[in-house]
Amino acid sequence: MPELPEVEVIARGLHGTLVGRSIQSVEVPGLTRLSEPADTLVPRIMGCTVKRVYRRAKVLLIEMDDGLSVVFHLKMTGRVVHAVKRTANKHDRIMFNLDDGSQLIFSDMRKFGYIRSFAPGELDTWDFLQRVGPEPLETGAAELADLVRDRKSVIKGLLLNQSVVAGVGNIYADESLFRAGVHPETRGNRLSRARALKLFTELQSVLGQAIAENGSSIRDYVNADGDAGSFQNSFNVYGRKGQQCLTCKTMLKTSKVAGRTSVFCPKCQPKQ
Fold it and tell me: Which of 19, 37, 144, 186 has the fewest CB within 10 Å, making it most exposed?
């Protein structure tokens, strides 16, 4: 599933190419069941001009000049690509034909993603965004550390909890915990302030590096131009089950934490 860095890369790419472009027509090969119905979505966005493209948590948002907002949640296999016009394929869900002859295409093989529109003012009351916690790249590491230090839940679960910190998923939780030397099953209230501060400092570093490297491409993710990311080449633990730790050569281990498989080094990340 695309996490904060991947969605941020897509948003930045689209903002650079879509601003000022208007929607001339819309093709709807097959919306997902979670999407807004075409008969309400299409009339709302016809003729709109893109004002800005941005991200909140793992959600991609396009703001139009009339105040309308179009939201994409990519879930597991969703893609939003700005490309030359082409015919639809079996995974395309909606295609926006733009005034310069290009297309904005939302495709989703597994059909778990969705697209929705919000009239001016409606986005602020969307329950999804109201539940989302602070952005990790817009919040100080010390403030983020204070959010977890009085909690009994395991730290991996707290990192994945979108109401605690926005946009972090399995990849960047595992990588940040490794860099900080924190075991994924350590409880938040067992972390000293120094260790909690180090964890969120490393989280910010990991997210920043991933954005700079165009995100992580494991299976389906591509950026707004259709290009793959490269941060997967920098993984220390994620996806490396049964391999040696790159730091100490100890065999990496796995455990189920907060319902997700976690990969960690038992030596570099001792359990507390």
Answer: 37
**Catalytic pick from 2, 5, 136, 184?**
2
In the chain, how many domains are there? Answer: 2
- Range(s) of the domain holding residue 113: 4-130
Alpha-carbon separation of residue 29 from 48, 95, 108, 223 (angstroms): 20, 8, 11, 22
Q: Are β-strands 102-108 and 253-257 bridged in parallel, bridged antiparallel, or unpaired?
A: unpaired
Q: Which pTM was predicted?
A: 0.95
Active-site residue identified among 3, 6, 63, 185: 3
Which residue of the set 190, 240, 260, 267 is catalytic?
260
Is 58 catalytic? The answer is yes
Q: Does a structural domain hold residue 136?
A: no
For residue 173, give both structure tokens. 């939780």
Catalytic annotation, pick one of 58, 156, 179, 198:
58
pLDDT in tens, 63-116: 999 999 999 999 999 999 999 999 999 999 999 999 999 999 999 999 999 999
Q: What are the tens digits of pLDDT across the range 36-73?
A: 999 999 999 999 999 999 999 999 999 999 999 999 99
